Amino acid sequence: MTNTDQLAGPGKTYTLLGSDRRPYASATPGLLGGHRGSKIYGRLDCPAARRAIAHRGYVRNRAFFADEQTAIAAGFRPCGTCMPEKYRAWKIATGAPQ
Predict the structure, then answer these.
(1) How far apart (Å, rounded) are the C-alpha atoms in residues 71 and 78?
(2) Predicted confidence (pLDDT) per residue in 37-84, tens digit
């Protein structure tokens, strides 16, 4: 299922990933997108994600989150392209290589 920037119409549902990494149905679209394989989340308009989608290397493992707290609780990290400040903070907090 795709999750675009549109609002849900009557009876429309979106599949979001919860903090337990399990999908659930939602009447409202997710605010953030992510990739299950790389465990990265970011904005829905992320240039890196859009490039990957255009090359068909991303869609199958796409995930959507209601909010940032849920993405973090599910074990995902911020995208370095569309969320550079949060990515830098994540690297410092986790001790990831600079």
Answers:
(1) 9
(2) 999 999 999 999 999 889 887 888 999 999 999 999 999 999 999 999
Question: What six digits make up the tokens of 49?
Answer: 């994600």
Q: Which residues lie across from 78 on neighbouring strands?
A: 41
Q: Which two tokens stand for residue 52?
A: 């990957």
- Tell me the CA distances in angstroms from 54 to 15, 46, 67, one per residue in order: 21, 12, 25
Contacts of 48 (CB under 8 A, 6+ apart): 42, 79, 81, 82
Strands of 1-98 (E only): list them: 14-17, 23-26, 32-35, 40-43, 62-65, 77-78
Domains defined along the chain, listed by start: 14-94 (3.40.10)
Asked if residue 17 has pLDDT above 60, the reply is: yes
